[in-house]
């Protein structure tokens, strides 16, 4: 059974480190705006184990329209739990929460390997591929409400 819960920013760090920043200093797992009062962090739990995470920030992207925008980043699922619907359940929960905040658009800088999931969630690519040094190729993606 999948359970989605709000967590503290510090509780995202183990999975951020393991999946998104392997071998890097733990400081790279602390993101700007992690502790803003408008930010929130979610985790999917399977059989009581935290398996998937993402963080959500009230942040405007200059190339997108919409007066209230949320960005998500740090989306990661432990390898053993992938393709089980955890990330999709987490995003479904998050998008409903964000929509209730009268948000116009949610966006992210998507890693290439996450594009298919995000497209299934109703997001669209809205940029050319770009590289984030030390991390790799990404696309800007958005979902309008």
Q: Terminal Cα separation, in Å?
A: 28 Å
Helix/strand/pairing category: alpha+beta
Residue share in helix: 10-25%
Number of domains: 1
Q: What's the CATH superfamily, by name? A: Gcn5-related N-acetyltransferase (GNAT)
Net shape = globular
Elements, N to C (H/E): EHEEEHEHEEE
- CATH architecture label name: 3-Layer(aba) Sandwich
Name of the level-1 CATH class: Alpha Beta
The pLDDT mean sits at: 96
Q: Count the helices. How many?
A: 3
Number of strands: 8
* CATH topology name: Aminopeptidase
Please summarize the sheet with the most strands. Answer: 8 strands, mixed
List low-pLDDT spans: none
Q: Nearest-angstrom radius of gyration?
A: 14 Å
Strand content: 35-45%
- In oligomeric terms, what are we looking at? single chain
């Amino acid at each position: 059974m999948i359970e989605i819960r709000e967590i503290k920013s510090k509780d995202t760090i183990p999975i951020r480190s393991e999946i998104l920043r392997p071998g890097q200093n733990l400081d790279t797992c602390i993101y700007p705006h992690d502790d803003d009062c408008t930010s929130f962090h979610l985790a999917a739990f399977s059989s009581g184990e935290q398996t998937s995470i993402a963080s959500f920030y009230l942040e405007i992207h200059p190339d997108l329209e919409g007066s209230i925008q949320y960005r998500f980043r740090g989306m990661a699922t432990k390898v053993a739990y992938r393709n089980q619907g955890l990330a999709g359940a987490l995003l479904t929960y998050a998008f409903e929460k964000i929509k209730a905040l009268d948000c116009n658009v949610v966006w992210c800088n998507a890693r290439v390997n996450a594009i298919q999931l995000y497209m299934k969630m109703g997001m669209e690519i809205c940029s050319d591929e770009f590289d984030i040094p030390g991390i790799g190729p990404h696309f800007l993606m958005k979902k309008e409400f």
